[in-house]
Write a structure and sequence with these properties.
The longest helix is centred in the middle third of the chain and has 16 residues, at 149-164. The strands form two sheets. Strands 5-4-1-8-9-10-11-12-13 form a nine-stranded mixed beta sheet, sandwiched between helices. A four-stranded mixed beta sheet has the order 3-2-6-7. It is built from eleven helices and 13 strands. It has one domain (12-306): UDP-N-acetylmuramoyl-L-alanine:D-glutamate ligase (3-Layer(aba) Sandwich), CATH 3.40.1190. The chain is of the alpha/beta class.
């Protein structure tokens, strides 16, 4: 696929909070109390936007960043990745959100500095009807809604606009318990899912949100809420693609994982790019499985996120 020119009307619009990440890599040799941090980029919908753009889709991002170096770095990132930034605001006083990742034997721990971030100041009035109406798909997530009440309302406004103009809505139920209580997350997520066409739940989050256990039960739950397509992410077990007349298990693409950061976001973006092209959810699921798996082969969300030529080559060789 040939990358689309940034600035063209996007076919996929993502909305949410981008962040700058710092991952602790190692202790210095001179001072055991000091650690080196590698700077990267995060934010689930930003990762998804970049994943879709790397697969050749025309993508735009709706958000706000601060008038700080981190906001500038994010804008430079999106421009390099051919993501349209015409709807990215620069907030005069609020800062760009950042977070720190500390790997340890049991997994990873996160420290966030995002309270009052520029993206959390988004409101329904910031949603451009013309911009959203011109797209094929609007992609949002539960994190996009969890960061503040006004951002939550902004997402619902964007969904309303999309549905008024026959734009498909995709929604990732990405659950962050540190951002809101489970009952509130459940109520908001289920309400949003009732208005979505493509649902991107993940197995662990969905068990908490629905109280169900098996993949089939969870997929059926979201299908009954109203989604046309449920792409249930199963982590190392692959994915389950369910529609009204199809139920297909996508096996995991074989890799040796290093870091799973952003793999689910990469799945979302790659799926949407492939779905825009073919309209086939099963083919899109297989393509997304390759992209997501390849993303886990390096540290951070973007370092090994493949572009279309690599993803297509890997997919063609996958038996």
């Amino acid at each position: 696929m040939t990358p689309k020119r940034a600035g063209a009307q996007p076919e996929i619009i993502c909305l949410g909070e981008p962040m700058v990440e710092f991952t602790r890599r190692s202790e210095t040799q001179d001072d055991a109390d000091a650690a080196l941090y590698q700077q990267g980029f995060g934010g689930d919908t930003s990762n998804a936007a970049i994943a879709a753009a790397r697969q050749g889709a025309a993508v735009g991002y709706v958000t706000a960043v601060g008038q700080d170096d981190f906001g500038t770095a994010l804008l430079e990132l999106w421009r390099r990745e051919a993501v349209d930034v015409s709807q990215v605001q620069r907030h005069e006083t609020a800062k760009t959100g950042i977070y720190f990742i500390a790997p340890h034997p049991a997994g990873r721990s996160f420290t966030y500095f995002r309270d009052g971030s520029a993206a959390s100041r988004l409101t329904p009035a910031d949603m451009s009807e013309a911009y959203i109406a011109g797209a094929k798909i609007l992609h949002v997530s539960a994190i996009s809604q969890a960061i503040s009440a006004s951002a939550c309302d902004a997402v619902f406004k964007a969904i309303e606009i999309a549905r008024q103009h026959q734009v498909l809505v995709s929604y990732d139920s990405n659950l962050r318990r540190n951002l809101w209580p489970l009952d509130q997350a459940r109520e908001v997520t289920h309400r949003a899912m009732r208005s979505c066409d493509i649902a991107f739940p993940s197995i662990d989050d969905s068990r908490e949100l629905t109280g169900l256990v098996t993949a089939d039960e969870i997929a059926d739950f979201y299908l009954k809420l109203g989604a046309r397509v449920v792409a249930l992410k199963l982590g190392a077990e692959g994915a389950l693609i369910v529609t009204a007349d199809k139920r297909v298990n996508i096996p995991p693409y074989p890799v040796t994982p290093v870091d799973a950061t952003g793999a689910g976001d990469a799945f979302d973006g790659a799926f949407l790019a492939a779905y825009c092209k073919s309209g086939d959810p099963v083919a899109a699921g297989r393509y997304a499985a390759v992209v997501a798996a390849r993303t886990t082969c390096g540290y951070g969300a973007l370092s090994t996120l493949p572009r279309a030529d690599e993803a297509e080559r890997l997919l063609a060789a996958w038996k």
